[in-house]
Every structure is written in C-alpha cells, then in structure tokens.
Amino acid sequence: AVGSAQPSPTHGRPPAAPARSASAGSTPTHGAPDALAGLGGDVHEAFGQGTRRNLRNDLLVAADSITNTMSSLVKELHSGEG
Fold first, then answer.
1. Is residue 60's pLDDT more than 80?
2. Domain-wise residue ranges, the chain
3. Is this prediction's pTM over 0.70?
4. What are the Low complexity biased-composition ranges (predicted)?
C-alpha cells in the first residue's frame, strides 16, 4: 500500500503541470500572477514571496531616498535663514 501510494502523487503532478503551462503560455500578456497560476504550489509560493520581498525592498529604498531628499531640503532651508 505504501509503495503504490508514492507513485500516485508523483504520477499526478507532471501531467497537470504541462497542461497548465500550455494554457499559461498561450496568454503571456496577462501578467505575472496568471503566468504563475499554471505552476505547482511550491513554485508559485516561492516566486510570489520573492516578488513581495522585491516590492518591499523597492519601497524601503524609495522611502529612504525621499527621507534623504527631505533632510537635504530642510538643511538648505535652514542654512538660507541665517
């Protein structure tokens, strides 16, 4: 029973992936979420988290840049008062 249970999940995964990949490949203009929809849960989750991580990093970099720019502006304004 254990030996027959192992090949079943392994056999069920590969046929599902190519069928979904083909449909995802025919609609590449729908964006990343649709492109990831045809992949396995682990792959989708890995790339989904990576995208969130990149977005978070980009937002932190942008916020830091804005903070530095505002700080420079305030320093210039204060130096002009004296």
1. yes
2. 2-81
3. no
4. 18-37
